[in-house]
Design goal:
With 210 residues, the chain is of the alpha/beta class. Helix content is 36%, strand content 18%. Strands 3-2-1-4-5-6-7-8 form an 8-stranded mixed β-sheet, with helices on both faces. It binds NADP nicotinamide-adenine-dinucleotide phosphate (NAP).
Length: 210
């Protein structure tokens, strides 16, 4: 698939390089494609990824991954151009700066706000409930980590489920996009367990079935 990654930080870089390794056509959309860190991205992938500006990356892709800080999400999307019809994977978490809670929640979610900013885009909330260190998959001794997906477009969710499966995750349909109201606090639980609870970042959620 043609995948644009907006936000080439911890999450975006990990997912982009992992999917490029699986043969997808990955383009990073960055604010400064001429910066040395942009060419470092291409070098890290042995030239398998491209680096363009944000609208250029989005225009050539069918899937757009949003992996910016929450505070930058609206501005990044506003530069991305028309995303109608594209699958947008929302990896962001609307965290307070001190990680003490969420900026939005209960009666809406970051993902629903993102949907309101991108008319016609097929938003799927995913890749927000595990640390970036383990987003390229296969780090838990053969145990498959659950990847919860929330979205209102079934075919978009299937595309994201397939992409998650390629990285060795167990995709779990977590319901409509409004269930991002549940997944974003779940990310907060992960952060609390990892950073305050003494478990470290080598943890992940798994849905067990009888
Ligand atoms: N870190 C994790 O383990 C983790 C796990 C799950 C979900 N998340 C969520 O994923 C998101 C990204 O986290 P991260 O840790 O990857 O953050 P990060 O390392 O700080 O990377 C954020 C990236 O966003 C880019 N960016 C900022 N504003 C932009 C804009 N207007 N247009 C294009 N790119 C822009 C930054 O680019 P510049 O270099 O130009 O500043 C940077 O490369 C956050 O919402 C976070 O809550 C993080």
């Amino acid at each position: 698939m043609k995948i644009a990654i907006i936000g080439a930080g911890n999450v975006g870089r990990t997912l982009g390089l992992a999917w490029a390794g699986k043969g997808h056509e990955v383009t990073f959309g960055v604010r400064d494609p001429a910066a040395p860190k942009s060419s470092a991205l291409s070098d890290a992938s042995n030239g398998r990824v491209s680096v363009l500006d944000v609208p250029g990356a989005a225009a050539r892709s069918e899937v757009v991954v949003l992996a910016t800080p929450w505070t930058a999400a609206k501005a990044a999307l506003s530069t991305a151009g028309n995303l109608a019809g594209k699958v947008v994977i929302d990896c962001t978490n609307p965290l307070k700066a001190d990680l003490s809670g969420l900026e939005v929640g209960l009666d809406t979610s970051g993902a629903e706000l993102i949907a309101s900013w991108t008319p016609g885009a097929r938003i799927v909330k995913a890749f927000n409930t595990i640390g970036y260190e383990h987003m390229s998959g296969q780090s838990f001794g053969g145990q498959r980590v659950s990847m919860f997906l929330a979205g209102d477009d079934a075919s978009a969710k299937q595309i994201v489920a397939d992409l998650a499966q390629e990285l060795a995750f167990d995709p779990v349909d977590a319901g409509p996009l409004s269930n991002a109201r549940l997944l974003e606090p779940l990310a907060l639980l992960w952060i609390d367990l990892a950073l305050r609870g003494g478990h470290g970042t080598g943890i992940a959620f798994q849905l067990l079935r009888t």
